[in-house]
Amino acid sequence: MPQRFESAGEKKVADFLKKKGLDFDYQKPIIVRHDDKVSIWYPDFYLNDFNIVIEYFGMVEKFSYVKSMKYKQAIFHKEKINFISIYPEMLQHEDFEDVLWEKIRNIIHHKVEVWKKLDERANEKELMRKRRYHVGI
Q1: How far apart are CA 111 and CA 82, in angstroms?
Q2: Is 35 left (phi over 0), alpha (psi -120 to 50) or beta?
Q3: pLDDT tens across 18-42, in order?
Q4: pLDDT at residue 83 is higher than 90
């Protein structure tokens, strides 16, 4: 049975993720800390290999929805959850897939750069430890 999505926008995002061969879950439960509590949220898409959340915000014309959307984005940012926001007008552009792919790649690239720096620091510390050991400091 094919996956059912809550909107045509979500289906379009899912079709793109499938086309790119990305391992994702639809509405995968994630644990989120906010307002001094812990909750389970169900983001639209979760890219399993990269820990990236993608949210399609399809009702931006409704004030209460926008308020909730901004709250969710602020929490994702505060908790350092990598996320990408998609809006209806983005889906209308012919370069939508290129834009979304670039957003995903930028997050992945940033993660790789952070890991490289951490590896460099760990290697430097190990080298310093070995020097102290050999010199007898």
Answers
A1: 10
A2: left
A3: 999 999 999 999 999 998 999 999 9
A4: yes
pLDDT at 29: 95
Q: 111-118: which pairs have CB atoms within 8 A and are 24 or more residues apart? A: 111/50, 111/82
DSSP element (H, E) containing 41: strand 37-41
What is the C-alpha separation between 101 and 6, in angstroms, rounded? Answer: 22
Contact by Cβ (8 Å): 14, 3: yes
Domains of the chain: 8-135 (3.40.960.10)
Residue (of 19, 79, 81, 94) closest to 54 by Cα position: 81
Residue 2 has pLDDT above 80, yes or no: no
Q: How far apart are CA 85 and CA 104, in angstroms?
A: 11
Instruction: Give the H or E element holding residue 4.
Output: none
CA distance 21 to 23: 7
Determine the average pLDDT of the residues in 45-65: 90
User: What is the distance between the alpha carbons of residues 37 and 17, in angstroms, rounded to a whole number?
Assistant: 32
Instruction: List 41's β-bridge partners, or say none.
Output: 30
